[in-house]
Specification:
Helices cover 48% and strands 15% of the residues. It has 220 residues and is of the alpha+beta class. A 5-stranded antiparallel beta sheet has the order 1-2-3-5-4. A hairpin with an 8-residue loop joins β1 and β2. α1 packs across α3 and α5 packs across α6. The longest helix is centred in the first third of the chain and has 26 residues.
Length: 220
Amino acid sequence: MFQGFNQSTIKYYESIKKDNSKTAHRENEMLYIEGVRQPLEDLYFELSHYFNKLDSDLSGSKRRCISSPYHDARFCGNAPIREYCYVRFKLNREDKKNTLGFFFDASLDGYKYGINIYNMNAKGMENIRDYILDNRNFATEVIQKFNMSGLLEVHGETYQKPSYPDEKEILRCWLEHKNLSFLHKETLNPRFFDRKLLEEIRRSFDSAADVYFMLKKAIT
């Protein structure tokens, strides 16, 4: 059962920040197991039950959902060890572009969670715009419900010059984006070390479930 992260989490990442090497990871392996791997697996197992009920199309493979301690050796440079951890449940697709998914990420800088569209390209955003414009009333209801909850915020780069000046403001907030994500950010706080973190994440995911299914229709 997930009970939050702990002081071993902090000590491990502090040690890796000072010395990002495989040697440092081996020397602090017990801190990693106690502070990162075990709570991350506990969080994964509890969220997997949640996502199994929400949408069976989301990949629940433990290997794919949980971060490893190592960066990809092809791209890590002089930092082979991750200075963050994550749990991600993504749609299982052969084409990796515009892959919709839920995530939780954490590091010494804080934690965040929400919905992301991985490897998003212009076509993916175009499909979202087309869906919103073709289903204005439905999209308005979904966005209104999402906005009223206030648990996640819309993020993403926007165009400098408005392209949809005649649309309702509630729709323009999405239509004018080059990309979209929906997330909540926090610095490390007492909830990070408590089961309340899981409850907070689940409430936020519940508030965005209709958004998730609308985006799924738009880009898959």
